[in-house]
Design brief:
The structure is a single chain. This protein is of the alpha/beta class. The longest helix has 24 residues. It is built from 17 helices and 17 strands. Strand 6, helix 11 and strand 7 form a beta-alpha-beta unit. The protein is globular, with a radius of gyration of 23 Å. Helix 5 packs antiparallel against helix 6. The strands form 4 sheets. A 7-stranded mixed beta sheet has the order 4-3-8-9-13-15-14. A 5-stranded mixed beta sheet has the order 7-6-5-16-17. It has a 3-stranded mixed beta sheet with strand order 10-12-11. Its cofactor is Mn(2+); Mg(2+). Its main location: nucleus.
Length: 499
Amino acid sequence: MDLEKQEQSAKLKDLGNQELKKNDFNGAIKFYTEAIQVYPTAILYSNRAQAQIKIENYGLAIDDAKKAIELDKNYLKAYYRRAVAFSAILEYKKALADVKIVLSRAPSDKHAQTLENRLVKIINQIKFERAIAVADKGSPISTLDLESFGIEKSYEGPELEIKQVDKKISVVMTQEYISNMVALFKKGANLPKKHAFAIVAAANEVFKAQPSLVEIGLKRDSTADKELQLDTVEKITVCGDTHGQFYDVMNLFKRFGKVGPSHTYLFNGDFVDRGSWSCEVALLLYCLKLLYPQNMYINRGNHETNDMNKVYGFEDECKHKYNEKLFLCFSESFNSLPYASLIGQEYLVMHGGLFSSDDVTVDDIRKINRFRSSQPPKEGIEMELLWTDPQYDNGRSASKRGIGMQFGPDVTAKFCENNNLKAVIRSHEVRMGGYEIEHDGKLITVFSAPNYCDAQGNLGAVIDLTLDNGEYKYDCRTFTHVEHPNIPPMNYTKNNLGF
């Protein structure tokens, strides 16, 4: 009987392996799960852990690797995959401990050697940065002296009018400048450093002036004191993660309309990291914010943070294309980004999701002091706004990511009822169709990076919000990826930790 089960399980494992090779990671997980149910083995749990890593379910990957180790303490792939998953959630010391186990038994393992070297480097870098942070708590932007910057001789683009008064920097942004900048980026060139610094610094001033909860709406009767009614706007488009996929962002604007007085956009976080054009995406969005301050809004995502940028590519990309100082200025500007937006007092938009307590209200988001620390707290509503995910079952549970938690339809329904909301819009997760309407229609996930990381094969999507007889209605619209130069995701990162 056991032999029959082993043979059946092995056939299902082979099907899972085929799906894994095709980058159908959910399909692979399905077959591995069926195989485990028939006859569990360390290899099956470890293979499923690998598939979970590919779709960023790092918490589930850690659980699977642990089960594999429990079944076979000598199965080294499980230790390695758990190390990779720990690295992805920034648990570097735990990851290093697992890698050392691999190397103690297989000292010539090249993958483990590489991961150990990178983990040691990043742990030491963090120690160094913490040590100097005590002495240097100043603002990188406030130390800029743009008068001392020259313009690189290779630059052939338009001039940018820059003003610096009492350490505050502003620019005169034009559509001509943005069009020429886009053309420059498509040639593979960079802005002059002086321009890049000025754009980030000027955008930071605009973000700092916004509240932690931005409240906007289309023109209609409203009793909300804090809502900015966009008189000339006919449509608000909400975009999810774009992750440095510059060419897909350009296609998004081509398909769904340009930013302007009649069309407002809200980008819901995670516009950097992973993709290899994060600088281009960030500078484009910042320029649009400067040109159309009431028609371009950006929420903070979990990837607009130093810890994530250090691992997922943005820091190294900034250093490669510009310099470390520009990354530090971007980091300061990320800390000025709002945590959430409220559209028409009816649709709350945040990157991650809802909260571990039913007592949290929209007013608590309004009260967030995002300038009390240089990075988001590791717990509390700020962390949850950036990190949490929905689940199908009622209640709350531990996160499949290993960070934050998950919330069910009952949590969403209660939050919407308590805050008089029609729905919550969030991003943070790949959806193969680009979006998903969840939790009885009260939660919508939108993801705007098609064929995420050149591997997932997913559609991208946006959500258009318009008025119909004075009532908001939404329309989820999808798009496919477009071709881009032959540069892989995370091309510039020096801290690729195996995922």
